[in-house]
Amino acid sequence: MEKVLFGDNQFFAVNHLSDAKAREQAIRFKDDEAIIRVLDQAIELGIKTFMCTTHDRIGNICDYARNNPKYEGLKIYPCMPYAHKYANAVTELGIMGTIKQYVPGNLFGTFAKGGVAFLSKDFCKLMEILVDVEMKMFNGMNVPVIFIQNVLVDMILGLKMYEVFAEYDRYIRKKYNAEPGYITMNMPALYDALESVGIRNPIICSSINKIGFRMSGGKAKYEQYLNEKEFRPIAMQVLAAGALSPKEAIEYLGNFQRIESVLFGASSKVHIAETKELIEKYLN
Amino acid sequence: MDKLKGAVIGLGKMGLSHAAIVGAHPAVEMTSVCDTSSLVLDAFRRYTRINTYSDYHKMIEKELPDFVIISTPTKFHYPMVKYAMEKGLHVFCEKPFSLTDQEGEELAELAERKQLVNQVGYHNHFIGTFRELKRLLKLKVIGDLLHFTGEAYGPVVIKEKGGTWRSRHEEGGGCLFDYASHVLNLIQEIVGRPVKIYGALLKSEYSKGVEDAVYALMQLNSGVSGVLSVSWSDETYRKMSTSLTIEGKKGKIICDATEIKIYLKEALPSENLPKGWTIKYITDFALPVNFYLRGEEYSAQVDYFIDCIRNSKKTEINSFEQAFYTDKVIKMIMDNAKS
């Protein structure tokens, strides 16, 4: 993995520090062109990996990237599912209604023929179908790592349905010839869960920052795992939603040999350049 | 101390989230879940050791849990909460609490009589910024209060359709029960209890049978006036966004889940607040939790519930009595909108 992973929160009104700022971003990036302009700049600055959600609008960005020689060699790390799409649907339609809405018609038809009983016996297949639906927009792109979003990872973790991780792991390797990745707000607990189902040296993306923000289980335990356990950590929320200055934030990450990459998002060329430089300077 | 035995009834979005949070709690063993969906129950049977039931009476009788979390559609709250408490279980119930005054009052009394821990899922009280707002108002940092605005906007219903219980008022659907209840409960516990509704509008924009927006003018027991403005049909918001703006004689505070903005006419050295604007962020106030899912507040409220049970504490945040009062205000708004 590259040291620097460019994220997409800033494009989709995700701001952990300010709802008001998030809405300003939504206005700024209302057109795909505005997103593409920032991506262009990131690529000019030497960013080689774009880690993005499976938001509908990413589909448009992929269409653009496929037909643009500048984007050749760009690696995409998809993170699925785009949770709010499903969360709003579950509130309105219930769980079955949501599955019906998002599983493609003919495929659901095939299941429906056997009735819900058939469907319910084959969760693995259902997971595979949902992954395929989300992956469609990345057809023909260079996709070396595929992540599950933290909402889903942490739900499965809390419910102790660890075998789901193993099934996901197998499917991503087999079907997409890619490495599975896991985003979590509970890194130590997730590491233990993955290990318990035989997943070795996993790619785990979690909040890692100097003030312990969103590091559930405690900063001390995170640091212990970063020092002692065998996995491939990606640090996110390194600025603790803006509470830390970029320099002190990234300097802190340099304390941990194992951290392979840093995920960050920025909207201006100056910020992208500055953060990238700091990561390259301090990360081992 | 032995682990507490926990159970969840109703495995929708909130129920699954609660089950995961309870499942990850070190002091609890999640022993059983109950739902009517065979799909969801099959998933639990396939992947977990948790026992599954489709009849909550059977589950409670057989499993004898210490507590139950009830996250079913609102119309089922009353019979389920009542049954669970009669069997001596501590109960955490999702919001809104009940559909009628009598039901809510009866349940609040029953909890009191049986000395059971009773809590309702108004999770905003476990968000650090709203807690800070409550603390600052208690200290009277903006002096005597004059007026407030309580708002919530989000994208739940953004085109015409209907079909689940959420599109039926008599079952607890609609923006008033779902979204506005959160704001009303926040106002009630942070600013004061609404006692009079001057004018309320329930507007259906996309939904059939229920309102998509609630607007109301009201007065609190302290005499303070305020406006409620809530819509679940606003797609300019990515997710539900709740805020309170409080005006006082000495300043103003605007608070949401991510930041608290304080304006003071004069500096307040005791709180280290200068004259003019101060902005503070959730990073300073977030409650540390052992397990995180969708927001610290969801874990923090369950942690609090479990702490009350383990240490035989009386519920002070989000008690049935408080939730029942919110139900009463909802009723006042409905009555006013009809008249």
Describe this entry's structure for a reader:
Chain A has 284 residues and is of the alpha/beta class. Chain A has one domain (7-282): Alpha-Beta Barrel (TIM Barrel). Chain A contains 13 helices and eight strands. An eight-stranded parallel sheet of chain A has the order 1-8-7-6-5-4-3-2. The longest helix of chain B has 19 residues, at 320-338. Chain B is built from nine helices and 14 strands. Chain B folds into two domains: 4-123 and 294-320, 3-Layer(aba) Sandwich (Rossmann fold); 124-288 and 325-338, Dihydrodipicolinate Reductase, domain 2 (2-Layer Sandwich), CATH 3.30.360.10. The mean pLDDT of chain B is 94. Chain B has 339 residues and is an alpha/beta fold. Chain B is globular, with a radius of gyration of 20 Å. Chain B has an eight-stranded mixed sheet with strand order 8-9-10-7-11-12-13-14. A six-stranded parallel sheet of chain B has the order 3-2-1-4-5-6, with helices on both faces. The interface between A and B is large, with 56 and 52 residues.
